[in-house]
């Protein structure tokens, strides 16, 4: 565990050092660099590799669709065409790989959700953090989510085994806005038979809707996440 946290800390410190070397960059210039990095990522046919050279995710060349098209096709993204919907107001790109079992979070409802993920720094072109490995099996990221009159909020639970990867690395209970967005479109349940598989999404998040370090240092991230309702 100490070795893993050391690696994560090293990555973050390297990112902070790179940022300090570019202190003369304006915020507008950093945002423009981020925008170009995202646009390049959409076209690059990216394959994300793990530490052992194994393929973690074949992202591929992304086909962006509008929100209107997304809603017209029943709020799904076509996987064969590798579609991602772009939410214009936030800059979030989302692909729903699986909607999952169960039902959507209803108004007035609260649930505790287990999330497993990997985080790829698009600007740094590197796999930055992941909890979808055995190391974090007993310490998943747990989200306490609630739907209040259609507005969904969430926070990381730090009391369960000291918190998961996101809390332990970024030291914040604030869930990235981009992680909350899919909750309006996926089901939150548990796998009850072999044919059911829990909800899974892929996201491209600009810094403004990302985790605290991304927000501070202005870089975008790509995520693959699963959402599963926690047992009572």
Detailed description of the structure:
This protein has 232 residues and is α+β, with helices and mostly antiparallel strands. The chain has one domain (2-229): Chitinase A, domain 3. 25% of the residues lie in helices and 31% in strands. The chain has six helices and eleven strands. The chain has helices spanning 2-20, 27-43, 67-72, 165-170, 177-180, 212-217, and strands at residues 46-49, 55-60, 63-65, 83-87, 92-98, 110-121, 126-130, 141-148, 151-156, 199-205, 221-229. The strands form two sheets. Strands 3, 4, 5, 6, 7, 8, 9, 10 and 11 form a nine-stranded mixed beta sheet that branches. It has a two-stranded antiparallel sheet with strand order 1-2. Strand 4 and strand 5 form a beta hairpin. The longest helix is centred in the N-terminal third of the chain and has 19 residues, at 2-20. It is globular and about 50 Å long. The two termini are 28 Å apart. The mean pLDDT is 91.
